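[audit] Reproducing an earlier prediction to check determinism. Same input, same settings, fresh worker. If the tokens differ from the archived copy the diff job will pick it up downstream; this log only records the rerun itself.
[audit] input (248 residues):
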Amino acid sequence: MSEKREGVIEVIDFHKSFGNKKVHQGVSFYVRKGECLGLIGGSGTGKSVLLRSLVGLEKPDRGQILINGVDVAPMGENELIEIRKKVAYAFQGGALFDSMTVFENLAYPLREHFKLSENEITTKILEQLQEFGLEGSEKLLPGNLSGGMQKRVGLARAMMMHPEVVLYDEPTAGLDPYNTKRIQESILSLKSKGVTSILVTHDMPTVYAVCDKVALLLNGRIGEQYTIEKLKQEPAGAMSQFINGESA
């Protein structure tokens, strides 16, 4: 139990249904500071629903969602504003504003939440673009970027407020090996700074590359959970079947 209390993220007995469809029926897990949890499972098992719930975009029917010991599940929109400064959501497609340049996309959260001069904003954005290997892209519109660059810009924007937690929703889906490696390097760089994260993905090589542990969603619960070291040695049961494509 002492390890559990150290969790920056704790999900306890999470239940969620949509109409008659029960998606989650008692999901529980925790992630400690600086850890990356890989959350895997078949299509329709509710992986993205869990991520969205961590920032209040979905509400559980029952259960708790603790961020640094504070339950965000019952919070209203005003309270969630402060949570969303600490918990960044890297959406699957980047979720960039199509009519805004890369610079304006990254400036948006700074202008919304901080009182900074335009010079300060420019300095922060150029530093962020350099860190994510996006130098020279600030004047481009999202439509002029490759899919890999769009995802990296989305991740750069998510990090503009230096959150404590980052939630990655399929960050490498559809990417070539080069851009997949760039995303992996960005995740590892953020981990090295103490950022806590959850990675929802079907990309097992990325799970092995960046995660500390992996949990399998199965039949509305966490079916199995392994550290990456243990997973490399002897995955068994449902986890082995999923990894080897033997179960959905």
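[audit] rerun output stored. Observation attached for the diff report: The chain has one domain: 2-243.
[audit] end
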